[in-house]
Amino acid sequence: MGEIKDFYCTYGNSVGISEEVTKGLELTFPEAYLHCDSMVRLSKALKEHDGASFCELPFCHTVEAEAMGGIINYGNAVTGPRAKEYICTSVEELLELPEMDFSKGRIHEVLLACKELRNQGEHVVLQVSGPFTILNVLIDAKYVFKGWRKKPEVMKEVFWKLGDQILRFMEEAKKYDVDLISYADSSGGVSILGPKMAEQVVSEFTYEFLKKVEILADDKTLMLLCPKTTFALLGTEKAELKDRKLSGPMSYGEGCIEMIGKAKFAGQMCIKNVGYQLENGLFKEVKLK
Questions:
Q1: Can you give the chain as a three-state secondary structure string?
Q2: pTM of the model
């Protein structure tokens, strides 16, 4: 077994939403985070501001938890939506939470916005959160870490409950023509969990979960992994990198778009790092073993 390396996020674009992005859009916050039409306008403005080759949605990592009953503070133009208060005080309570309902609420508006952006000819990266990130909204992290130590079987059940909901969200996104689905769980990185727990999470959840995600990658959809997840897979020898030749040097985002239908997983760089260039014209596909 190898060593799980950490990935330090250094990108500076799209951290919060600056006034220069929202100026002239005539949007009010936090209402702009809640409705399809304003999400579309804001996403396109961010794309133009960042010089990206794609639009991104949503603007936070709380949508999935909210769809399962989480309480959200919608924030303002600068901070964005975030957790307001926890709704669970034990890991067992997490198992009683409802399934995500994609027909209503903010998660539905996000899907509608993705569809509208695609109708306008845009490539769309849907940011999907992993279990640790979702749990951060629902329950104090101390109960999660205590659960891993004292009730590992319950926590495994919790993770697969969340994993099944995440898969459903990805499947639903494909119905709305999302062509780039990003999976990230930075709250579960090795720097937070430590090497032993990080390895345990990969072996008991992440690898098998991503084998299911892999099935969703087809000629119209590419899956993007946070580099933290990529390094966890490489360090536990559950994946390897394979060089894929691009049509020439280009940005990482452009490379991902070109690889739709040709590769299953991207993951060599954070998709938010829009300035990252593949100067040698090589794209590194993440291949699960």
A1: CCCCCCCCCCCCCCCCCCHHHHCCCCCCCCHHHCCHHHHHHHHHHHHHHHCCCCEEECCCCCHHHHHCCCEEECCCCCCCCEEEECCECCHHHHCCCCCCCCCCHHHHHHHHHHHHHHHCCCCEEEEEECHHHHHHHHECHHHHHHHHHHCHHHHHHHHHHHHHHHHHHHHHHHHCCCCEEEEECHHHCHHHHCHHHHHHHHHHHHHHHHHHHHHHCECCEEEEECHHHHHHHHHCCCEEEEEEECCCCEEHHHHHHHCECCECEECCCCCCCCCCEECCCEEEEEEEC
A2: 0.94
